[in-house]
Amino acid sequence: MRFAPLFALAAVFLLLAALPGPSVAAGLEVRLIGKLPAANYRAASVDTGKAVYLFGGRNETNLTTAVVKYDVSSGKVSDAGFRLPQPRMSACAVLVGDHAFVFGGADGGLELDTILAIDLPDGPVRTLDARLPSPRIGLVAAVSGGMVYLFGGHSNGTKIANVTRFDPGSENISLTGASLPSGRAGMGVATGERGIYLFGGKTDPGASDEVLLYDPAKDNLTVLPERMPYTVYHAPAVVFEGKVLIIGGNAQFPDWNVSKATDTIIEFDPGTGKSKTLPARLPSPRERSSAAVVDGKVLVFGGQEGVSALDEIVACGQAGKDETSGAGTWLIALSMLMLASVAAVAVAARRRR
């Protein structure tokens, strides 16, 4: 029994190492990690896992044809080496295999009904024969079951309520039987196990705090009973650690007299259907940003605050995650050392007998 205390101590260290760390309870940590080549907002984006691509967008005065590439492994931002056929902002984009599809948008004075197909990582870019049912900006898209679903937007000032299906294989496009409760643009969109979630959006005459759920298998769209804490539009949505984050956007809180850009982040729980405002804040208010989840964190690119365009890249991750991981590794190593010491003492004792 002389070794019992050592075994007990080793067991305690192993138990501590196995316990979950405090990173989730600590919430999100938000920090600036870099800059874009130029200020940009209203860019469409896709994430390949290796890189995030931003297609077009604009700064305070000009639209661009540029495609910006953020390399995940190095954190380097560069020109992707190919360009869009014309300046384009307020489009949306999805990734299907190695192809990015960019839908609609505007080239300045003219709204577009075109669809671009882009071979990644190097291009080329081609304009498909298929067209949207009407020119539109502020639409959003999501992929489910190999199909692309397009929601809302507005065309010549008229908000759109229909849901459109695009088949990347045949490159055919058609209207579904579903529609939004009302025409709306600038929604957040995220795909979950139950279907495609849609958040907020700009409506007539104001904005929405609703959460919608579209079931592609049933072609059915419902309004969930729980609303978000405030109305919001032009806010990107991403799935992060089982929840959906709706980041920034143009919001109107209950005690605000006007709608304006916000620095807040909403967390939506698909399991409960409830939303809450997180304590974490962006470095400054912003709307019309692009966002992606890469390497265990949410990256937010650019955005607009008032009349100003932003060039910031912001990272949102679990606070203390790296430190927690390091502590766990240290505890495991110490536990292994304790067990090795116990084993060595036991062997030495046997030899002395």
Mind explaining what this structure looks like?
By secondary structure, the protein is mostly beta strands. It has two domains: 1-22 and 321-353; 23-319, 6 Propeller (Neuraminidase), CATH 2.120.10. The chain has helices spanning 4-18, 23-26, 321-352; strands at 28-35, 44-47, 51-55, 66-71, 77-83, 92-96, 99-103, 114-119, 125-131, 140-144, 147-151, 154-155, 158-159, 162-167, 172-179, 188-192, 195-199, 211-215, 220-223, 231-233, 237-240, 243-247, 250-252, 260-261, 265-269, 274-277, 290-294, 297-305, 308-318. The strands form eight sheets. A four-stranded antiparallel β-sheet has the order 1-29-28-27. Strands 2-3-4-5 form a four-stranded antiparallel β-sheet, with no helix packed on it. Strands 6-7-8-9 form a four-stranded antiparallel β-sheet, with no helix packed on it. A hairpin with a 5-residue loop joins strand 4 and strand 5. Helix 1 (4-18) packs antiparallel against helix 3 (321-352). The two termini are 16 Å apart. Mean pLDDT is 88; it is low at 3-26, 322-340 and 342-349.
Overall structural class, as computed from helix and strand content, comes to: mainly beta
Named at the architecture level, the CATH assignment of the largest domain is 6 Propeller
How much helix, percentage-wise, in residues? 10-25%
Q: Which CATH class of the largest domain is shown?
A: Mainly Beta
- Estimate what percentage of residues fall within beta strands: 35-45%
- Determine the CATH superfamily of the largest domain: Kelch-type beta propeller
Shape descriptor reads globular
CATH topology-level name of the largest domain: Neuraminidase
Count of structural domains: 2
Q: How many DSSP helices? A: 3
Strand order of the largest sheet: 1-29-28-27
Secondary structure: number of strands: 29
Low-confidence stretches: 3-26, 322-340, 342-349
Distance between the termini: 16 Å
Major beta-sheet overview: 4 strands, antiparallel
Tell me the radius of gyration.
24 Å
What's the overall average pLDDT, rounded? 88
